[in-house]
Design a protein that fits this description.
Structural class: mainly alpha
Largest sheet: none
Order of helices and strands: HHHHHH
Number of strands: 0
Radius of gyration: 13 Å
Number of domains: 1
Strand content: under 5%
Number of helices: 6
Shape: globular
Helix content: 55-70%
């Protein structure tokens, strides 16, 4: 399945991180894939409320938690700049799908980074 939202299709997820050589593209590609899978799940499951949305974003956040080891193995990490960029993309996803009132901290509440 691929996303149907034109806004999502046009979004350059993790853009600031791709522009910074500290973050390896091959790991960022996995992060981008996590965000796109989140969008696919939102489109497929159509969460009825914020609670249902947070369940989906929690799963995606756990995937980013697992990705931290790959960042570290590549000499990088999910630090302040990365945290901000990832959080911004989670909020973009939520707002694009009609959840502009979502709390960014709740979207990524399961984070270890």
């Amino acid at each position: 399945m691929s996303v149907t939202s034109q806004q999502v299709a046009e979004r350059a997820f993790l853009r600031a991180l791709y522009a910074d050589g500290y973050f390896p593209d091959h790991v960022l590609d996995k992060g981008k894939a996590i965000l796109l899978r989140l969008c696919e799940r939102i489109e497929a499951e159509q969460p009825a409320d914020l609670t249902a949305l947070y369940v989906l974003t929690n799963v995606a956040t756990e995937e980013f938690n697992a990705l931290e080891a790959e960042f570290e193995a590549a000499g990088s990490g999910i630090e302040t700049v990365a945290r901000e960029e990832i959080a911004e993309d989670f909020w973009f996803v939520a707002s694009t799908y009609g959840f502009a009132e979502a709390d960014v901290e709740k979207l990524i509440a399961a984070r270890d980074w």
